[in-house]
Amino acid sequence: MTGRTITSAAATAIAGAVVPCMLLVEMHFDSGTVYVTNAGRSFTWSGHTWLGVGGLGSVDVIEEGANMQARGIRLSLSGVDSDNLFTALAEHYQGRACKIWLAFVDAAGAVIADPLLLFSGRIDQMAIELGPLSTVTLSAESRLMDLERARIRRYSHEDQQLDYPGDLGLEYVAKDLAEK
Known about the structure:
Elements: H1 8-15, E1 21-29, E2 32-37, E3 43-45, E4 48-52, E5 57-59, E6 72-80, H2 82-90, E7 97-104, E8 116-129, E9 134-142, H3 145-148, H4 157-163, H5 173-179
Parallel strand pairs: 2-4
Antiparallel strand pairs: 1-2, 1-7, 3-4, 5-6, 6-9, 7-8, 8-9
């Protein structure tokens, strides 16, 4: 991602000998939005409480490049209990928003304003490994993946109704083509 800007407080934190930081992960589901962090305790930022999952959660390397290429990531959460596992199985997740921020933490343990947005995309797949300590792994893809998908649209009354219900501008197109 080009053109990132950081606050002066974040720049000061980065310049220090030790740079305490954490990842903030936001995932949208039908039942609500989930806010987690890889920190060992929960944090509050942007009006939300981010649940600290510590070493139970992991995020694969977030890659960037100079070219316009769609890249994906994988997020894992281990030690999921059976109640939450059944909730995960029932959730509609595909195509839902997923964002990841890098947040710097000050000496008092508070999030320094304006974490950097590292990834913004959509959840694609969810894999569940059953066992005594079940693991849920989500794959998310960059929004650039949409550029690679075929867009199949027609100049038909039915297609027009998808975007503009009640519009009758293409009502007789199929009939006119059949007569020719």
